[in-house]
Specification:
This protein has 445 residues and is of the alpha+beta class. It has a domain of 258 residues: Cathepsin B, Chain A, CATH 3.90.70.130. It is built from 15 helices and 12 strands. Helix 10 packs across helix 12.
């Protein structure tokens, strides 16, 4: 029997000589990192832990926990921060389904707050500009300006103390110190027109008047008070007003005029105006206008009227009706054909936006044009002294002359005096005084 046929010896023979084993590299191929693709081999586990440990859930100590907002999807690393963030969503009601309306509500709220803040700033600015804040009045401004003059070397300390003492005395007695006064203006004008100025057909002049200009204590805001002093200086010359002015024999200081206006308010004049100023002027730098002048004069039983030229009545924004009214005021009682008419009429208070002046006359030229003569509180004593030395060419009259083209503000108001009031008429005036239009004149005085 051959060896091949015995009970399957052939398989035995094959098992005795097995196939050679493949090399280790064939059994264990290079392993790649599933995160970055780098071949790591047997070090794969160590590589993953070292380089990509944050992505594994096993090492919880070194992996940073993340928390997602259920409303807007914002990812936080701190659970407390997430809670506060969600609380803000709940307070503002800005869930995704209502986010547009929430944003609109928030925008409206912010705009409202901004508008409110802007209004408050504007009110503060306006109060500061018109002297309605708590920055002090005539006395404080006078002292502050003198201190600046000393610091700049323009005033000696001894002069500072002297002027301070004079000012304190003036305020104590309530009388103007007269240091800004210039007298004799109407007399000079009357003489000039009688001998010179060939182009003037006729001129009407008010009763005598003194010029008062702003000082260190009221520069920038005192024009209304200074114009009242001018008007009062003329009334004190007229015996018709002696009874009305028996308690005002001398020109009052600006703080005293403020107190006089407050007294008029207490009597019931111009309640709207009193409310605007909180019934207080004394100790402030508050601007006054035609309404305050009207109330003050009427409280003194001086008959006057306030007239509002609220819009231009001529070409290019001019006011011919204003000029015509003033011409009638001064020429009504004059008779004859005299070239120069020195009337007994008091001056006229003229108010426009940001400033006021005093009308002391009107010229009628040979070509029929009209020209007002105005005294300006802004003109210094030095300038007024030049007017008193009026030369034949009339150069200095430029300070006074205002033609129709020179007065082109949108609105003008005048206060014109015309006699005295009985006690009964004064009472009626108090009852009807509420008609007085309130207006703040916005500009630089």
């Amino acid at each position: 029997m051959s060896a091949r046929g015995i009970c399957g010896q052939l398989p035995r023979s094959e098992a005795a000589h097995p196939e050679p084993e493949p090399p280790p590299s064939a059994l264990r191929p290079e392993l790649e990192c599933p995160f970055c693709g780098e071949a790591a081999g047997r070090q794969l586990e160590a590589h993953v832990r070292a380089q990509h440990g944050r992505l594994l859930g096993a090492d919880t100590e070194n992996v940073e926990q993340l928390y997602e907002c259920p409303i807007c999807g914002l990812t936080c690393t701190d659970i407390q921060v997430l809670e506060e963030h969600v609380d803000l969503h709940l307070e503002e009601r800005s869930f995704p389904e209502d986010r547009s309306s929430g944003d609109l509500e928030l925008a409206q709220q912010l705009q409202t707050e901004e508008d409110k803040q802007q209004r408050l700033e504007e009110e503060k600015r306006e109060k500061r500009q018109y002297g309605l804040d708590s920055s002090g009045g005539y006395k404080q401004q006078f002292l502050n300006n003198m201190e600046r003059e000393v610091n700049r070397g323009r005033m000696q300390p001894f002069e500072y103390h002297k002027r301070k003492a004079d000012m304190m005395e003036s305020l104590a007695f309530g009388i103007d110190d007269g240091k800004t006064k210039t007298s004799g203006i109407i007399e000079v004008l009357c003489k000039y027109y009688q001998h010179e100025n060939k182009d003037v057909r006729r001129v009407w002049l008010s009763a005598g008047v003194d010029h008062f200009h702003s000082s260190l204590g009221d520069k920038g805001w005192g024009c209304g008070y200074r114009n009242f002093q001018m008007l009062l200086s003329s009334l004190l010359r007229n015996s018709l007003y002696n009874d009305c002015l028996r308690d005002t024999a001398l020109i009052p200081s600006i703080p005293k005029i403020q107190s006089m206006i407050e007294d008029a308010w207490k009597e019931g004049f111009d309640p709207h105006g009193a409310s605007h100023f909180n019934s207080r002027l004394h100790g402030s730098k508050a601007w006054i206008g035609a309404c305050e002048i009207y109330s003050l004069l009427t409280s003194l039983r001086i008959k006057c009227q306030i007239i509002d030229f609220h819009k231009p009545t001529g070409p290019m924004g001019t006011h011919p009706r204003l000029f015509e009214w003033i011409l009638r005021y001064y020429s009504t009682d004059s008779e004859g054909a005299a070239k120069v008419v020195c009337t007994s009429r008091p001056p006229i208070y003229l108010q426009h936006q940001g400033h006021s002046r005093t009308i002391v006359g009107i010229e009628e030229k040979k070509n029929k044009t009209l020209c007002l003569l105005l005294l300006d509180p802004g003109c210094s004593s030095q300038e007024m002294q030049k007017l008193l030395k009026l030369s034949s060419d009339g150069t200095s009259l430029r300070l006074l002359r205002k033609f129709m083209g020179n007065l082109k503000d949108k609105q003008y108001q005048i206060v014109a005096v015309d006699g005295i009031l009985t006690l009964e008429e004064k009472t009626v005036s108090i009852l009807g005084n509420s008609f007085c239009v309130r207006k703040i004149y916005k500009s630089v005085c």
